[in-house]
């Protein structure tokens, strides 16, 4: 049975009740699968959550979370006790780590927004939203563009959005509706089922499966570290306040 991904509908949720589907051992670690989870598995350039899963029978420390063929694998070890399949457990995500990753990830979309606003014609690519040197990439050529000016323009637009404190929400919609709200809709999004769009202040949508801040003011501060050509892509390195 596939794991229900509770963070998809509500990324501010950090706790849930769930039922144990299976317990396994792999490479000296325990692997717990549940019917539903609030834990974010690594993916889309965002690191996994950590935290704990608990029942009266035991406490499992979640050190790593991975998604494989629809199943979320909570990897870690029992601090005490054990679970049995069918048992009800409580999950709790480490709030500080999740918040940091949500802020870094959301700041990457500030770059997306600024790039769209500046009509640079760059095509959104992958992002790397880890605390060590986060960046977003775009298909395109910098050529003889004034990099210092680009850096200032992106910083200015991103910082203005943070100052405005726009709300961030999630909507599920058809690919056709996505095209109306999002400046860029990747080709690999399926046509036949509603896709998840993260919407910033009602006007700027990004198809995305990650976790985000609920208000962009939570990013607090944002700067561009470096803009460089990594052919065939342009890589925009950015940082957030206090990380
Ligand atoms: Zn996102």
From TrEMBL:
Domain Alanyl-transfer RNA synthetases family profile: 1-243
One term under GO cellular component: cytoplasm
Pfam families according to UniProt: tRNA-synt_2c, tRNA_SAD
Coiled-coil regions listed in the entry: none
Record's protein name: Alanyl-transfer RNA synthetases family profile domain-containing protein
Biological process (GO), any one: alanyl-tRNA aminoacylation
Gene3D superfamilies the record matches: 2.40.30.130, Threonyl-trna Synthetase, Chain A, domain 2 (3.30.980.10)
InterPro entries noted in UniProt: Ala-tRNA-synth_IIc_core, Ala-tRNA-synth_IIc_N, Alanyl-tRNA_Editing_Enzymes, Thr/Ala-tRNA-synth_IIc_edit, Transl_B-barrel_sf, tRNA_SAD
């Amino acid at each position: 049975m596939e794991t229900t991904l509770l963070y998809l509908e509500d990324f501010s949720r950090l706790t849930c009740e769930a039922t144990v589907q299976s317990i396994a051992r792999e490479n000296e670690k325990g692997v717990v699968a549940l019917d539903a989870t609030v834990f974010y598995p690594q993916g889309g350039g965002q690191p996994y959550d950590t935290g704990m899963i608990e029942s009266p029978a035991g406490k499992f420390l979640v050190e790593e979370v991975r998604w494989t063929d629809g199943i979320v694998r909570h990897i870690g070890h029992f601090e005490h006790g054990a679970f049995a399949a069918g048992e009800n457990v409580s999950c709790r995500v480490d709030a500080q780590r999740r918040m940091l990753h949500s802020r870094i990830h959301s700041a990457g979309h500030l770059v997306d927004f600024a790039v769209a606003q500046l009509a640079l014609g760059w095509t959104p690519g992958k992002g790397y939203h880890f605390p060590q040197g986060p960046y977003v990439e775009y298909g395109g050529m910098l050529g003889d563009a004034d990099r210092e000016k680009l850096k200032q323009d992106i910083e200015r637009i991103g910082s203005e959005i943070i100052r405005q404190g726009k709300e961030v929400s999630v909507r599920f919609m058809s690919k056709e509706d996505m095209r109306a709200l999002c400046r860029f809709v990747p080709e690999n999004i399926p046509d036949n089922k509603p896709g998840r769009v993260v919407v910033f202040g009602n006007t700027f949508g990004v198809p995305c499966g990650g976790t985000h801040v609920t208000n962009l003011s939570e990013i607090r501060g944002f700067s561009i570290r470096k803009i460089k050509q990594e052919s065939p892509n342009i890589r925009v390195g950015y940082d957030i306040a206090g990380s």
